[in-house]
Amino acid sequence: MEGLRAYRLIGAMWIRSTMAYRASFAMTTFANFAVTALDFVAILLMFSRIDALGGWPLPEVAFLYGLSSVAFGLADLAIGSMERLGQRVRDGTLDTLLVRPAPVLAQVAADRFALRRLGRITQGSLVLGYALTAVDIHWTPLRLLLMPVAVLSGAAIFCAVFVAGAAFQFVAQDASEVQNAFTYGGATLLQYPPTVFGRELVRGVTFLLPLAFVTWIPAAYVLGRPIPLGLPSWVAFAPPLVAGACCALAGLAWRAGLRSYRSTGS
Amino acid sequence: MDDHVTEQVTEDVTEDVTEEVTGNRTDHHTDHFIELDRVEKVFDVRKKTGFMKRERREVRAVDSISFTVARGEMVGYIGPNGAGKSTTIKMLTGILTPSGGRLRVAGIDPSRERTRLAHRIGVVFGQRTTLWWDLPLIDSYRLMHRMYRIPEARYRENLDRCVELLELGDLLDVPVRQLSLGQRMRGDIAAALLHDPEVLYLDEPTIGLDVISKAKVRGFLRELNAERGTTVLLTTHDLQDIEQLCSRVMVIDHGRLMYDGPLTGLHEVGESERTLVVDLERELPPIEMAPARVVRVEGPRQWLAFPAAESAAALVARVAAEYPLVDLSVREPDIEAVIARMYAGEASGAAGQAVS
């Protein structure tokens, strides 16, 4: 695949260049770890006052938090740079990507590939690890299988959100904050139990922007809780399908965005 | 995430393309490397005129332009700001899709097969770099090497040649953002040539450069064209670029091709004048020396306008022989003025329309 190859080449170059300054890399990675950890500290502080949030005790909320952080972290690591697309459209540097023999999506996604984003993933993994030891889960083969499936599908869903957001920036070049609302905002939303949110919001996040498939639905299944909105339990295995559909739609949106750029310029 | 990266590959072929003039494929001339037939580009400009109110206006950035460029030609593309130069270059590289007409570069429709064409063209944007801003110059070159799949030996040879001719040796390990404008421009030109493109587009390659950098860039381009036969198409504001490099010049204004022919012809059509500024030893009455005429006197300094086609050397010699000359300089005709004059005289027939 020409796109993957270009992505790998550009990504590798950025890794080499950050590794030239190891101390700086270590520090920024730690900073990424620490800053994202503050989110969890906020949750811990909350639980110093309460015993359960929307009926979910701390270890279960930690489970949601870890799942959301790792899935979002993976997407952010892979294509987090896409939020800068509007900037590239504004200052015209997107043109330079269009004259290279590689798909623009791959070039934009790999731009400034930063391993320091592993900080968020590490932090999320630690919290998830704590949750897995603290919650008494009745493990079945299906539940075990669902864990990696949920993480990967969740990452793919977030990737789709990143790509769709970037596509939107072709039209509205200063929309990167709007995109952040969906990516970072979405990731934070998913760290809290669905029961603390209004039914309408949960519906929206399930059927419109299907972020619920990243954590709420698979987590409910693994933890043996009722699936939100009274959905049947087989829905817990839908995340790969949902992720595939999201990616396909995001791909179409991207294509439309790029086409509108190429016929209007900037 | 792999899914939607792969999604991308079909993007070029499914591109929805504007109405195409289907010509007879058999009469396709191979020596016409670049072909434009009534190419247009219309932009929809939306202007906010109030809350939620927008006014739509059509802007014809390129209005029915036709020309051909043969392999190995070196063509200058000039015109005032906003004339449509950059838009044309963007269509030639496939960045923009034409709104109408037929466009071919090396037999390829640029907007349809952008990535395939990319292997055969080199592009230098004067105002922005194609290099990776935060990384050392050599890293950008290494990436080009792999991305364009340039064979090792060719890459070595091309890099060595560019490094030598463009004097990049000491700059290879410097991050691009630390380079001066002139250094960066040379770095950009090298990057555009590593994959042996058949045509090199340069959009304002000398803009903002000092005299020495300009000379280096021009010298290199001249040699590239002469020795490797690379077709070169450059847009510029600077008539000197054209004078020193191009045998052929195209003038565009308001999206229309106003002139296509040799530079001397442009001066004739535009009746342009150069200016000789002389500093005399003392204040003297206006110099009389046909065909030059004094247009301004300020103390010992006088401004003489003379036809651009006329030799400055003969005039200078005569002035020096008859007047106490302290210093002098020659000013080139202002391109905007030439074009303005041409625009005014457009009705009297496009005398210089020399279609090659």
Task: Give the key terms.
heterodimer; A: 266 residues; mainly alpha; two-stranded antiparallel ribbon; 2% strand; globular; B: 356 residues; alpha/beta; Rossmann fold; 6-stranded mixed beta sheet; 4-stranded antiparallel beta sheet; 13 strands; 29% strand; disordered N terminus; disordered C terminus
In short:
Chain A has 266 residues and is mainly alpha-helical. Helix content of chain A is 72%, strand content 2%. The radius of gyration of chain B is 24 Å and the shape is globular.
Structure notes:
The complex is a heterodimer of chains A (266) and B (356). In chain A, a hairpin with a 2-residue loop joins β1 (52-53) and β2 (56-57). Chain A has 12 helices and 2 strands. Chain A has helices spanning 2-19, 22-47, 58-79, 85-91, 94-98, 104-110, 118-134, 141-171, 176-189, 199-208, 216-223, 239-264, and strands spanning 52-53, 56-57. The mean pLDDT of chain A is 92. Chain A has one domain. Chain A has 266 residues and is an all-alpha fold. Chain A has a two-stranded antiparallel ribbon with strand order 1-2. The longest helix of chain A is centred in the middle third of the chain and has 31 residues, at 141-171. By secondary structure, chain B is α/β, with parallel strands linked by helices. Chain B has 2 domains: 23-266, Rossmann fold; 273-332. In chain B, 31% of the residues lie in helices and 29% in strands. Chain B has helices at 2-6, 85-93, 114-118, 137-147, 152-165, 181-193, 211-228, 239-245, 263-270, 312-322, 335-344, and strands at residues 32-50, 53-70, 74-78, 100-105, 121-125, 199-203, 231-236, 248-253, 256-261, 273-280, 293-298, 301-307, 325-331. In chain B, the strands form 3 sheets. Chain B has a 6-stranded mixed beta sheet with strand order 5-6-7-3-8-9, sandwiched between helices. In chain B, a hairpin with a 2-residue loop joins β8 (248-253) and β9 (256-261). The longest helix of chain B has 18 residues, at 211-228. Chain B is globular. Mean pLDDT of chain B is 82; it is low at 1-29 and 347-356.
